[in-house]
Amino acid sequence: MTRILHVLDHSLPLHSGYTFRTRALLKAQQGRGWDVRGITGNRHIADGPLVETADDLVFHRVPGRSQSRIAPLAEWRDVRHLSSGIDALVRDWKPDLIHAHSPVLGALAAAPVARRHGLPFVYEIRAFWEDAAVGNGTGLEGDLRYRVTRFLEDRAVARADAVMVICEGLRQDLIARGVSPDKINVSPNGVDLDLFGDPSPPDEALRSQLGLDGAEVIGFIGSFYDYEGLDDLIAAMPLLVARRPKAHLLLVGGGPRADALRAQAEASSVAAHIHFVGRVPHHEVERYYSLTDILCYPRKAMRLTELVTPLKPLEAMAQGRLVAASSVGGHRELIEDGVTGTLFPPDDPAAMADALARLLADRAGWDERRRVARAFVERERSWAKNVVRYEPVYQQLLTNGHVVRTS
C-alpha cells in the first residue's frame, strides 16, 4: 500500500476552505487504497493531542514556536522545527512520498527531509503566499517581504520533483516565471459530493427569526477579507432595492473586515435590508444556505483573485444554488456566464446591482440554471474525478527509482 505524507499549514478539526480541500483530497486518496497521513506545524492553532484523528484521518502535530518573533528569524526557526518533526515521522512511519501544500513554509521544511531520505517530493500551490498577504491586507505588492516570499516560492518549486496547482491561472504564472510546463499539473478545486445531497428545504423558523419572510435573499457565506469585495456588495444594495424592493442581503461569517462592513451597512439607506449573522457552526451552515436565492461572490480584481479559484461557488452549485460572481480570472475558470452562473464586472456596485436584479427577475430560468450548474460540478469538479489527476504524477515519481510499497 502506497503511503503518502501530506505536510499541511493546518487541518481538521479546524474548519476553513483549506481544511475542506485537504479533507476531500485525503478521503479520495483513501478511497483509492492509499495510506495517507498529515502533519502540521505551529500554524495549526487548535489544542489537541500530538497524534489526532479527525473524520477518520490521522494528523501528526509539531507544536511549539520560536521564542523570537522577529521576521524572518522566527519563520526560519519555525521551518527548522517543523522539518525536524517531519524527519522523525518519516523515520517512524516510512512514507513513500512527501506531498507539501502551500503556504511555502511547509515546502521549505519538507524538501530537505525528502532529499535526505531519497523520497519523491510534490509541492502543491493553492495560492502564492505573497499574493495572499496582499489580499488579506497584511502585505504590500512589491515590497521587500513580497519579493523575499516570491523568491522562496520559486526556490520551493525548483526543489520539488513535481508541482500541483489548483487552477490554470497559477500554472500560467509559474510558466511565465520559467518553470517547465511538464513539471506543473493542475488539480482544480472540487467538491466532495458525498457531503452534498439534495438541497435542504428552507428553514422557515430561521427565516422568520432573521426577518426574511417574503424576501428575495442574496447571500454570502464565508470569510470577510478585503479581497472578497463585500463593501461593493453592500454599496450595491440601495441600487438593487430600488429595483427589487424585497431584496435582502444575508452575510454569514466573520473576519478582519467585519467591523468596517457592519459600520458601512448601518450607514446605508437600506440598512434594514442587510443582515449580519456572524460565524455559525459548520453543521448549521446548510440552514443559512437554504434561505438564499442567490449566492453572490463579488471579489475585487487583484493578482490573488485573478490567479486563484475559490471553493465556495462550486459548493453553492453542488447544493443547487444560483451563483453570481465578479468576472475575475479565478471565477471565470469556474463559471460560464449565463449557463452555470452570472458574471458581472468587478469593483462596480452598479453593474453588480443590475446583474442581481436581472437574475432575480428571471425566476423562470432558475431551475434549468441550477440543474446545469450541478451537472457541471458532478462531471468536472467532484473529488472522485479530481483525485485521478494525482495518480500518474505519483506513479511516475514512485517508479523513478523508488519502490512502491505492497503491504
TrEMBL record:
**UniProt xrefs under InterPro entries:** Glyco_trans_4-like_N (IPR028098), Glycosyltransferase_grp1 (IPR050194), PEP-CTERM/XrtA_GlycosylTrfase (IPR024004)
Q: Name one GO molecular function term.
A: hexosyltransferase activity
Residue ranges of every copy of the Glycosyltransferase subfamily 4-like N-terminal domain listed in the record: 17-190
**CDD domains xref list:** GT4_WbuB-like
The record's section on Pfam families has: Glyco_trans_1_4 (PF13692), Glyco_trans_4_4 (PF13579)
Q: What is this protein called?
A: Glycosyltransferase, exosortase A system-associated
Q: Which organism is it from?
A: Sphingobium nicotianae
